Amino acid sequence: MRFDQRHLLGIEPLRADEITTLLDLADQYVTLSRRREKHSSLLSGLTQINMFFENSTRTQSSFELAGKRLGADVMNMSMQASSIKKGETLIDTALTLNAMHPDLLVVRHPQSGAVDLLAQKVHCAVINAGDGRHEHPTQALLDALTIRRAKGRLHRLNIAICGDIAHSRVARSNLLLLHKMENRIRLVGPATLMPAGIDAFGVEVYDNMEEGLRDVDVVMMLRLQKERMDGGFIPSEREYYHRWGLDAEKLAHAKPDAIVMHPGPMNRGVEIDGTIADDINRSVIQEQVEMGVAVRMAAMDLLARNLRARPTELSA
Ligand code: ASP
């Protein structure tokens, strides 16, 4: 089992075998999490700090639960109300953190690259819980685990990522991961929501859902990231739903056993029909949430092993 990373800042630096190692371990944590007694003492004695500079419900609680199930001391720092608002720089934050001696730091930040910067300044292992439009590695890993368990494999699948690709760190991390694992990826959505330079990714691009979903194994829907738009990207939400919202009619073009995914939070009636989202025969959205805890346990387990292999740095 090899996982050579000191931090988990993105999917980009990971090798395919490291992704497989992490997912294999996460499978074991799914089993543990389904037991009545879910506790392990693997991270016992270690301190995990969750720093969310941007609102989050599911990701933050998922990381908190993951750390607690592994026996870490978990602290949530609400950065909305903290000194950041008073103008503290990221560097000052790093110095404050170092003085608290955390072992694992989970960071979400609205700016792309901010988590990498922090990782260069702190002494502990850092996990990126989403930075701007850049990456959201644990989301892509939990999506990968969900796909692997539903389809029995994570290669040579036809996967459509649909909607607001341009503003989505989820799309970016998934694209990188699914590409490394040798899948065929299609991006489906309006041209205004496709990132520049997309041709370099080796994907097929469609602006029509019926064609884009034809015979795919996986339909991955994305939230319309209104907070990152300054107007003019879509005609109206009604029109958007009509053309790119996933409903039964459009889904009928995918394979009969295609699964439907969404990272949440969902805008029902904008990018996805509520009945499809709730259809337990097609939608794996609840499984994604379950896999999220297991993948985060696996990520923290692997990073903690690497931390323990560096005792001198820890005590520095
Ligand atoms: N929860 C995901 C993220 O933080 C997806 C989303 O917000 O649309 O990026």
TrEMBL record:
Give one Pfam family.
OTCace_N
- Residue ranges constituting the Aspartate/ornithine carbamoyltransferase carbamoyl-P binding domain according to the UniProt record: 6-148
Q: Which GO terms describe its cellular component?
A: cytosol
InterPro entries (UniProt xref): Asp/Orn_carbamoyltranf_P-bd (IPR006132), Asp/Orn_carbamoylTrfase (IPR006130), Asp/Orn_carbamoylTrfase_sf (IPR036901), Asp_carbamoyltransf (IPR002082), Asp_carbamoyltransf_Asp/Orn-bd (IPR006131)
Which residues does the UniProt record annotate as the domain Aspartate/ornithine carbamoyltransferase Asp/Orn-binding?
157-302
Catalytic activity, reaction form: carbamoyl phosphate + L-aspartate = N-carbamoyl-L-aspartate + phosphate + H(+)
GO BP term, example: amino acid metabolic process
Report residues binding L-aspartate.
Answer: 86, 169, 223
Q: What is its EC number?
A: 2.1.3.2
Q: Which positions are annotated as binding carbamoyl phosphate?
A: 58-59, 108, 136, 139, 264-265
Q: One GO MF term, please?
A: aspartate carbamoyltransferase activity
Q: Name the enzyme's class.
A: transferase
Which sequence ranges are marked TM in the entry?
A: none
Keyword Transferase: yes or no?
Answer: yes
- Keyword Ubl conjugation in record: no
Q: Which UniProt keywords apply?
A: Pyrimidine biosynthesis, Transferase
Task performed by this protein:
Reversibly catalyzes the transfer of the carbamoyl group from carbamoyl phosphate (CP) to the N(epsilon) atom of ornithine (ORN) to produce L-citrulline. Catalyzes the condensation of carbamoyl phosphate and aspartate to form carbamoyl aspartate and inorganic phosphate, the committed step in the de novo pyrimidine nucleotide biosynthesis pathway.
The annotated subunit structure for this chain is: Heterododecamer (2C3:3R2) of six catalytic PyrB chains organized as two trimers (C3), and six regulatory PyrI chains organized as three dimers (R2).
UniProt lists the family membership as follows: Belongs to the aspartate/ornithine carbamoyltransferase superfamily. ATCase family.
Protein name, entry field: Aspartate carbamoyltransferase
- Organism annotation: Salipiger marinus
